[in-house]
Specification:
By secondary structure, this protein is mainly beta. The chain has one helix and 24 strands. A hairpin with a 2-residue loop joins strand 23 and strand 24.
Length: 337
């Protein structure tokens, strides 16, 4: 085998290695980042009450140092404002809201922490698990993933790469929230994604020591700055904002077979027909980020009606209201190229 061929193979292996260890959305300021700013118009409501909080130790491996002691639980109520509540190692907090959360278009809620950047991709991030509960009160955890190297412990002021983190709160720097999509929990039996009432945040103990390590959905140790034996140890929760919420009305949900959307997928600017067996009262179209699309033309207003697809390829949702009932349907718009 020639030296040139070996060089090419080496480069390919390096690229494959980087790809396999860096496959999630990157940090704020990079293309593909999914962070949502605290001032975003898609955030409609914030946490309104603390149901329960449990402080963790400053350092779970040395309990003599005592519990975390910065902020109070009520700092997490309302809009993100940099007033944070430090959970400590393995500490937790349960929050509730004026409106229930539902599995709508794109992310459904956002969690804010106060991580900061050292410059470029070098960031200090403290992470946390996120769980939700419906009307049953039983919490279900989002399937978290951490691809951070576990051969060496990230130190107390060490850096974590956001592109190796998925479904963990604290992925983004302060003032930018980490989005969570209830669609990731669609296969959980008996979890009603249309009526989420509570959110629980649990600090990740980023230790690589077996006795203390937190692990992701694949059983891999999660490596983040540790130990942080300070009063502000652990995850520092700023706020939780809601994107998709259930309006408190008597509107019922349409059965999935009462309306159909076709062709699906369709082309940009193509006609989309919505066929149903109830008179139409109204409709709205959203992109995957929850932004309402205001440029979609309405063609007719019968039981079988048509709209013109958006002029940009992507995934969209149409919210249909008919005879006092509503339904959300997903459709895909393809490029003509």
């Amino acid at each position: 085998m020639s030296r040139f061929t070996l060089s090419v193979l080496f480069v390919l292996l390096q690229l494959l290695s980087k790809s396999s260890l860096s496959q999630y959305a990157p940090q704020v300021g990079n293309i593909g980042c999914t962070a949502i700013h605290a001032d975003s118009s898609i955030l409609h409501f914030w946490a309104t009450d603390v149901l329960k909080s449990q402080l963790g130790y400053k350092d779970i491996s040395d309990t003599s140092l005592g519990l975390a002691a910065v902020g109070t639980a009520d700092f997490t109520i309302g809009k993100a404002d940099h007033m944070t509540f430090s959970l400590g190692d393995a500490g937790s907090i349960e929050l509730t809201f004026d409106h229930e959360i539902y599995n709508g278009p794109g992310p459904d809620f956002v969690v804010f922490e106060n991580g900061f950047s050292f410059g470029g991709d070098s960031t200090f991030l403290e992470l946390a698990f996120v769980e939700v509960a419906d009307t049953s009160g039983n919490f279900v955890r989002f399937p978290a993933n951490s691809l951070t190297d576990t051969n060496f412990q990230v130190g107390a002021f060490g850096s974590v790469n956001a592109s190796k983190i998925n479904n963990l709160a604290g992925k983004y720097i302060g003032n930018y929230g980490t989005p969570f999509d209830l669609e990731d929990l669609k296969n959980i039996p008996n979890l009603n994604l249309g009526h989420i009432q509570k959110i629980k945040i649990i600090d990740v103990v980023g230790s690589l020591l077996q006795d203390f390590a937190s692990k992701d959905a694949n059983g891999r140790k999660i490596n983040d700055p540790w130990p942080t034996p300070f009063a502000s140890g652990g995850f520092d929760l700023d706020a939780v904002g809601i994107i998709n919420y259930v309006v408190k009305t008597n509107v019922k949900e349409l059965n999935s077979n009462q309306f159909s959307v076709y062709p699906n997928p369709t082309n940009v600017n193509g006609e989309i027909r919505v066929q149903g067996n109830l008179p139409l009262n109204g409709y709205r179209v959203f992109d995957v980020y929850g932004n309402e699309i205001g440029s979609v033309d309405f063609i007719s207003a019968e039981n079988n009606f048509k709209i013109i697809a958006p002029n940009k390829a992507g995934i969209y949702f149409i919210h249909i209201v008919a005879a006092g009932e509503s339904s959300m349907q997903k459709f895909v718009v393809q490029s003509l190229n």
